[in-house]
Design brief:
The chain has 482 residues and is α+β, with helices and mostly antiparallel strands. It contains seven helices and 25 strands. Strands 5, 6, 23, 24 and 25 form a five-stranded antiparallel β-sheet that branches. A four-stranded antiparallel β-sheet has the order 7-8-9-10.
């Protein structure tokens, strides 16, 4: 960077050799500020006059302008004369904002790295299981096949019979003995000369008893497997890229037990709720009821229970119980310390800070707090007042999993929302307050699963996968006796 400066000191212009002897010095003063000093000898005057004048005023003005230029170029104090107020502060703010963005991107990349590492561990675990199963099958001896021995013919079978008047003439040919043989020839001819197509071979059927701990879809044990997704409908427009669909396990009049509800969750004005008489009408896209929620809904964490819709009010930690029959708010309450509007979402985003669900044990909320440092917190709620009855803090970060659901008081988390072949990777049991890693295969058929919830009404998983409304059959183990 070059500066072209002109100075008039003591009323003289710099000319000739005086310019050659000019020197510039830079250093810090006692306060630590950078200070520039120019030394230029005068060819005429031995000393500068002590009184001021127009020349000194002009010199001071030029020096002030120089300080302004140096301050602007070095990002220094913006309060110098002639500098726009806040210029340095804006530069500092821009740098801080860029630093914050870099830190945020670093955190996101770190979270994605941790998620991929967990998926890799799950895949390695499955590969190891498959390897062990392959070794077991390879070392297992093949079962020996027992040859089928036809029963020995009785004496009655050895005696040739004449065909009766009403019998099939072919039967006489089948049982006719060899006239030139002995009794052994009679026996051999009956089995060796007869057509094999007329010989009936009987196999014994052995019933194998069911093993202990067989899966029971009416019980409340651990989740064993999730079937392939069944698609019921594809959304008509962009508003249905992700959303919620649900069924009340304890429906209240005027709505029947087969009633299904749908909410499109794209946009900032989410308040329409569509009702369908049954699954067939939902598949056809013919709603029989449309409700307009009095307060905006946020994200895909809503649920239905005992005639009420439970949801998170937009941009807040407030929970709302909306009564479907009266079409009015029946209760509202803040979920203590819960993050909201993007503080602790699932890995797919969507402001999924608070996820409400219903299972055999009642109403639940899945969320996180600053105290929990982003780890998943599970709270059981009073369905009438929305008060927290009891809470559990897990050791798995909420933004490291794609989604979660609760069955029989057990929380299950999904590893990825975008991988078409992923796993349910973690289970936390609120009854024992213990968690463990699992590896249950799960399929995101359409590659963007933004909602997954347990439907107590149908004992299936309901999901919203990239414009598509889908469901999954599940298998549960038997409830272990205490």
């Amino acid at each position: 960077m070059f500066f072209l400066l002109s100075f008039c000191l003591c009323g003289l212009l710099l000319q000739g050799e005086a310019q050659d002897r000019a020197s510039l010095w830079r250093g810090n003063d006692r306060s630590g500020r950078c200070q520039y000093t120019f030394t230029i000898p005068s060819p005429v005057e031995s000393s500068c006059p002590q009184t001021g004048g127009p020349e000194m005023d002009g010199l001071k003005a030029r020096l002030s302008l120089l300080e302004v230029l140096v301050s602007q170029l070095s990002g220094g104090d913006s309060r110098l004369p002639g500098v726009e107020q806040g210029a340095g502060a804006r530069v500092q703010s821009d740098l801080q904002e860029a630093l914050n963005r870099a830190v945020e991107e670093k955190n996101l990349l770190q979270s994605e790295k941790e998620r991929l590492e967990r998926e890799l561990k799950g895949l390695q675990f499955r590969m190891e299981e498959m390897r062990r199963e392959t070794e077991r099958l390879r070392n297992k001896p093949c079962p020996q096949q027992t040859p089928v021995v036809p029963p020995s013919p009785t004496l009655q079978d050895r005696v040739p019979k004449r065909p009766s008047s009403g019998s099939n003439p072919m039967s006489h040919l089948m049982t006719r003995p060899n006239r030139q043989g002995d009794s052994s020839s009679l026996r051999d001819s009956a089995w060796q000369r007869g057509s094999p197509g007329f010989q009936e071979l009987k196999a014994a059927v052995t019933e194998v008893p069911a093993p202990e701990g067989n899966d029971d879809n009416t019980g409340c044990g651990e989740l064993l497997s999730v079937a392939e997704p069944v698609t019921h409908r594809k959304a008509d427009n962009i508003a249905g890229k992700y959303g919620i669909w649900m069924q009340d396990p304890e429906a209240v009049s005027p709505y029947g037990p087969n009633m299904l509800w749908r909410i499109d969750a794209i946009g900032s004005e989410i308040r329409q709720m569509f009702g369908y008489e049954d699954l067939e009408q939902l598949s056809k896209g013919f709603p029989s009821k449309v409700l307009l929620l009095p307060e905006l809904l946020e994200s895909t964490g809503a649920t239905l229970y005992k005639g009420s819709l439970y949801y998170q009010r937009r941009n807040s930690r407030t929970l709302i119980r909306y009564d479907l029959a009266s079409e009015s708010i029946a209760a509202r309450r803040e979920l203590p310390h819960a993050g909201f509007h993007g503080q602790f979402p699932y890995s797919w985003g969507g402001y999924t800070d608070i996820d409400l669900s219903v299972d055999e044990k009642g109403l639940w909320a899945v969320y996180s707090t600053n105290k929990a440092k982003g780890a998943i917190v599970i709270s059981q709620l009073n369905p009438e007042s929305l008060e927290v009855k009891k809470s559990w803090e897990t050791n798995i970060r909420k933004n490291s999993v794609a989604n979660s659901f609760i069955i029989c008081g057990k929380l299950y988390t999904l590893a990825s929302y975008a991988s078409r072949e992923t796993i349910i990777n973690y289970m936390y049991d609120t009854e024992t307050s213990q968690g463990k890693a699992v590896a249950i295969p799960f399929r995101n058929k359409y590659g963007y699963n933004s909602m997954i919830d347990y439907s107590l009404a149908q004992r299936k998983l309901f999901a919203w996968d990239n414009f598509h409304i889908v469901s999954y059959d599940i298998r549960l183990g038997r409830q272990q006796a205490n």
